[in-house]
Design brief:
Methylamine Dehydrogenase, Chain H; 2 domains; 1 helix; mainly beta; about 500 residues
């Protein structure tokens, strides 16, 4: 009985008293002397000499007046003899605001914030506010929010956050003269923050290594040598500066990922001259040189996109192979990490594949492919074809066809959640006659799969990104045929 350690022995002061408050009963410890309850873990966990990895602590503490002290803990776990803190539960003032959230950095780690507007309780993890409790939202309708005019047509947008700086967007612009723009979320809209010289940029990817923030651009302009560039965030200048260049060939995409605390980058090399059957390259971060080095090459056919995902202890990479020089009806490949390298796991038939989107619903794992067009030397090239959602089967240990969805030269899928609802939005880019098409939002309906719920007018839609701010949830799409990208606001109830 742990409580008996804190209670006075019979006949000793201070006395204790059983009290009841609003239906809850408890012991009132009288007197001004604080009693510390301390014990080795081995005395209470009789089947284990150590404190367990998983445990529950249930306590109700009611203190009418208490001055807050920075390092005063209600419960703590410390190392034996050294008393070095391993785990602690301490109380702190709850910040309440109707506007922007308080700062969240390492200094505020563990602080709680109650957002009355969103009716949620959040905790700072040292980088961002994470949800503890919040009313479940439901999507009501989608409205136009911002017209974002970029310097030229935009193939890709990447939304990311920088601690203590805010929300940013990197636009991959076609025009090499004007370069690509980095935008910052200010006054509830994206505004130009920095311009970076790029060569027909096709994609950006944001990643971090040891708290250092990077952006890598896929430059696709045919020149010798073709160079894609990694930029790093300089906290002093508050700008992205050139960090490392890597030789690429018609690069269309980068994917960043980590395996066992090692950082990797993989590039989708689309073609070299007129040859689409070339190698794409996986780079590994060298902790000594602080640079990326070639780790592995994989044979690809007109590679358009890479997607990394994890299922349990297994790590996967899937490539969207678009064209082999003769036809778009080719296989795209799922690779699995085994023995320190990626090996073929499964080949999936695709038709001009341009994007893979991996997502999880409950304990089910899915892959959605965007099929763009059917090209062969035997007839016309239809653009209105099925894109497919695959599910990982626990019986066959392979991805099997789950649902076909009619799309129009689809070039991107984006999975996002609103409350408990799950959604997919597709980038329909062309139907053979027009770039002015509706891109469709699909909602997960359980056994029915994904059903269409909203149609959004788009023009040459190339990429979708979902992001959230204190103002709510948003979708942004980029246009590969226009300078106009659009931000939509997801209205909820």
């Amino acid at each position: 009985d742990l409580l008996s350690r804190a209670l006075p022995r019979p006949g000793q002061a201070p006395p204790t008293k059983m009290v009841q408050s609003r239906g809850s009963r408890g012991l009132r410890l009288a007197g001004a002397v604080t009693t510390a309850l301390s014990f080795p873990a081995s005395q209470i966990f009789t089947n284990c000499d150590y404190f367990p990895a998983e445990f529950s602590l249930v306590a109700t503490i009611k203190i009418p007046r208490l001055r807050w002290k920075k390092n005063e803990y209600i419960f703590s776990v410390v190392e034996d003899r050294s008393e070095s803190l391993l785990l602690g539960l301490r109380f702190s003032p709850v910040q309440v605001t109707l506007g922007n959230p308080p700062p969240c950095s390492r200094a505020e780690q563990g602080q709680l914030w109650f957002n009355a507007q969103r009716k949620g309780l959040f905790i700072c993890d040292g980088l961002t506010w994470r949800t503890l409790l919040q009313n479940k939202e439901r999507l009501d309708y989608i409205e136009n929010y911002q017209d974002l005019y970029t310097s030229s047509e935009t193939f890709d947008v990447e939304v990311f956050s920088i601690p203590c700086e805010g929300l940013f967007l990197a636009a991959a612009n076609r025009d090499s003269v004007s370069g690509s723009g980095i935008y910052k979320w200010r006054n509830e809209t994206f505004q130009l923050y920095q311009n970076i010289s790029t060569q027909e940029a096709r994609a950006w990817k944001h990643f971090t290594i040891d708290d250092k923030i990077f952006l890598v651009v896929a430059n696709s302009r045919e020149a010798e040598p073709e160079l894609s560039v990694i930029y790093s965030w300089n906290p002093q200048w508050r700008r992205f500066l050139r960090y490392q260049t890597l030789e690429t060939h018609g690069a269309l995409d980068w994917e960043a990922f980590q395996i066992h605390n090692h950082s990797f980058l993989v590039v989708a090399n689309h073609r070299r001259d007129s040859n689409h059957n070339i190698h794409s390259v996986i780079y590994r971060w060298n902790q000594d040189t602080k640079m990326f080095e070639v780790n592995q090459t994989l044979s690809t056919s007109g590679a358009y996109d890479w997607e990394f995902f994890t299922v349990g202890p297994y790590h996967f990479l899937v490539v969207a192979n678009t064209f082999d020089g003769q036809t778009t009806s080719i296989s795209s490949t799922v690779y699995i990490w085994l023995d320190g390298r990626f090996q073929t796991f499964q080949n999936i038939p695709t038709v001009g594949a341009t994007d893979w989107e991996a997502f999880q619903i409950g304990d089910r794992f899915f892959l959605a492919v965007a099929n763009s067009q059917r090209v062969s030397d035997r007839g016309p090239s239809p653009y209105s074809i099925n894109s497919t959602v695959y599910e990982l089967s626990t019986l066959t240990q392979t991805f099997i066809r789950f649902q076909d969805i009619l799309t129009h030269s689809a070039v991107d899928w984006e999975f996002f959640t609103i409350g408990d609802e799950k959604f997919l939005v597709v980038a329909n880019s062309y139907d053979g006659t027009s770039y002015s098409l509706n891109s469709v939002v699909y909602r997960w309906q359980g056994y029915e799969g994904f059903v269409p719920v909203h149609s959004l007018p788009t023009f040459g839609c190339r990429d979708w990104e979902h992001f959230s701010t204190d103002e709510g949830s948003f979708l942004i799409y980029s246009s590969a045929t226009s300078r106009l990208s659009k931000v939509f606001r997801l209205k909820t109830y």
